[in-house]
Amino acid sequence: MTAVKDSVHDYISLDPVAAELVDTPAFQRLRHIKQLSTVRLVYPSASHTRFEHSLGVYHLASRALSHLGVDGDRAAHVRAAALLHDVGHGPYGHQTEDLIRRRTGRDHDEIHHLLDGTEVGEVLTDHGLDPERVADMVDGAGGLGQLVSGELDVDRMDYLVRDAHHTGVPYGTIDHGRLVRELRYRDGELVLAEGNVQTAESLLLARALMNAIVYRHHVSRIAGAMLERASERLVDDGVPIEAFVRMADHDLLVALGERVPDLGRRIERRDLYKRAVWAPIDAVPTDVVELDFEATRAAERDIADAADVSPESVIVDAPSRPRIKESRSRVVVNGVVRRLEDASELVGALRSAERTQWRLGVYAPEAVRDEVAAAAVDVLGLPVRVTTPV
Q1: DSSP state, 89?
Q2: Between the chain's N and C termini, which has fewer beta carbons within 10 Å?
């Protein structure tokens, strides 16, 4: 076994398959993909990578399998899937995921093409593992796939603790040791054992707090929206999408600086657009809340025309409606498997809080913020008092 020192889990022991997978170029690339992408523009110490996160997920999966009594071939496939679950991410992780999905039809957890006939696939095959089965588990297929991608997956357990550790905030702290120990399989579903409603609630609460304070911080949202627009222009300028997908973070920054300098250099220097509009969900018409990609770009053009500014000076950022995936977690209550949302009153309160925290953003360079704010209010049908001075 190969031991790796980790900042969160102390020592992580890699089995022979994992040790070889870690040395493949596809996995080493994850050293250069930051876990929190543009969040590090808010929290300077959040410079950890998907490489170390993947090792942490592998570690928690190994512990969970041991507590579940799963071993042999089944466990080997789950461990490999846990380790490889993020190899499909593009540069800046989730920040470029929508662009990649639109251009390729793939999500980051669809990795069959990265295991078929590749060095990673050869390592798996050499150790008697089926690459297709591993890829299916990364996508959450099958009962054991829930451990890698599901409501109670070890991916979530690791990133909450790791992100809290590296940002320096206390809000993502969870008892992942108890969560792992209390996992059970009932009728093909991953559940928490009797007496763990509060354990499940702690995961839910940690995610909600991290969303509000870390993941959806307005500076990160602005930078992420700028990065997405710049990346679209880069691909439109002739960079093949498959080459884009395999870039690392620094590759993308260099390419943007050279080929989309107006946005690329702003992102590099943290010279970001400002909030012209920052509106709560109750102040936003339903059709604006539900803007799709094409409608969003059309709205940006209309706002730019109305404000008499260049189209590149307006970004509309309409997040998806608030939802709490973890509320569908299952926990045993009085011998019966129930969804957490049916067993906990806290879920309703957190849903209300998520709705309250939702914001529509319209961003623009500071020099034209006022003009863009006035135009956005008119074009989007917003109340007048939704602009923000900072």
Answers
A1: -
A2: C
Q: Convert the pLDDT of each residue in 239-270 to its tens digit.
A: 999 999 999 999 999 999 999 999 999 999 99
Whether the pLDDT of residue 327 is over 90: the answer is no
List, in order, residues 6 or more apart from 257 with CB less than 8 Å away. Answer: 264, 265, 268
Cβ neighbour number for residue 163 with a 10 Å cutoff:
24
Rounded Cα distance between 119 and 25, Å, is 8
Give SS3 for 48. coil
| Rounded percentage of the chain residues whose pLDDT exceeds 70 | 98
Burial of 184 (0-12, 13-18, 19+ CB in 10 A): middle
Gyration radius of the chain's alpha carbons:
22
What is d(CA 87, CA 54) in angstroms, rounded to the nearest whole number? 9
pLDDT in tens, 129-147: 999 999 999 999 888 999 9
CB atoms within 10 A of CB 336: 10
First to last CA, the chain: 53
Helix 218-236 with 97-104: angle, nearest 10 deg: 30
pTM, two decimals, is 0.95
Specify whether the CB–CB gap between 284 and 382 falls below 8 A: yes
Q: What percent of the chain has pLDDT over 90?
A: 90
- Angle of the 261-269 helix axis to the 249-259 helix axis, nearest 10: 130
The strands making up 315-317's β-sheet, listed across from edge to edge, are 274-280, 359-364, 315-317
Q: Is residue 137 within a helix (H) or strand (E), and if so which, with residue range?
A: helix 131-138
Q: Please spell the DSSP secondary structure of 16-42, one letter per residue.
A: HHHHHHHTSHHHHGGGGSBTTGGGGGT
